[in-house]
Amino acid sequence: MNGSAVVADALIRSTDRLYTVPGYPITDLAILAGARLVINEKTALEYALGDSIAGRRAAVIVKNVGVNACADPLVQAVNQGLVAGVVLVAGDDPEAKGSQTAQDSRYYGELAEIPVIEPDPSCFHAAVEAAFQASEEFSRVTLLRLTPGVLDAEAKDLPVQRADRRGRLANRAWTMNGRATAAGELYRRMSDWSTDSPLNHWHGGPAGAGPAPGTTRIVTVNPVPAQAAGIHEVHECGRAFIRYHRGVLPPEPRGPPATMEGRGFSRTFCRNCPYHQMLKILKERGMQVICDAGCSILAMNRPYELGMASYGMGASIAVAARSTKVALIGDYALLHSGLNALIDVYTGQLPMLCIVMKNTRAAMTGGQPVPDPLPYLSWATPVVCGAGEIRTLERELVVTDTPRTLVVEGVCPEGCSHETVAY
Fold first, then answer.
1. Rounded to two decimals, what is the model's pTM?
2. Which domains does the chain have, with CATH numbers?
3. Edge to edge, what strands does the sheet with 36-37 contain?
């Protein structure tokens, strides 16, 4: 069997959901794995994060430039956390045979502070399962890097037993700074994970990663294992990632995560915000939502505490479609990068309620004007109502077995700013 067939079998064994945007060199892999075609890579990763919240492992199969489209939720998931494992399978094309670039996706490991695994043909099954376990252990996405040399190589079919673990979402009591501190502590522990990984084999130099030759095999390439510091000759496919990162020390500890209680307050909506009544209805009904960037993220705090998670701009729709079924998003975030996900949700007829807070301004960043989203939503036949139309809100704030969009119009009060809730 070639590498694509063995990796596909390993993914099927270790996952519950598979998504893809095809392209060289991973198109055949995605077909063999039976991955669901998604409108774009960002939406695919957001679906996978929603699956994770719901306790399902998920993988996303994309080519190298597709990783770029995943960057926002990929990085934000580190601080937000996840529950079941999520693996981003990146098909790199170091010689640019079928791609616009020859970028090396391993550098996202450094940028996002995520585990990166680059298997050789002898350990595909073990590497895929290890990628999911690392995602769950460190509560962030793992990147599995594959190049044409390993996908086309003859590989051994040696399945391993699936062993699910459980990650964690960020503690609601932490500030954003506290979340970053907690995520950084987990990243420090990743250095020991990489150094101790049985996927690596140490037999002196030279060392090889992926399909590159070497008597020593380095499979956990981010963080680079400590043993690599003593090896002078390293063969890699692409840029010199391992050579540049040999001997890099883990980050210094930063102390305990900062909490809202320790800070003394959390932030919430403006006192005269038109959306208070809508939020009260959601809270009374016990409806958990996925929040977006912008004012909707405040629904995670007191007094409402509605939000289960937030993975960045435009992410709430796809994440909610695979988890809580309720997305809370502002008009700017919808137009910024949420519309693609909404199109995919409607195409798949996934049950979800998308609540759009239409105030025609980017209220979180200074009140900049926002175009009216309604001309771009006619295909979704949204229900439109004012923020003060209580009966309509009570009728429409429900999840059904089909996708629905509710646009709630309100006017931000002039001269107001976000309130604080004392602890």
1. 0.97
2. 3-245 (3.40.50.970), 264-422 (3.40.50.970)
3. 36-37, 17-20, 58-63, 86-91, 142-146, 116-117, 220-222
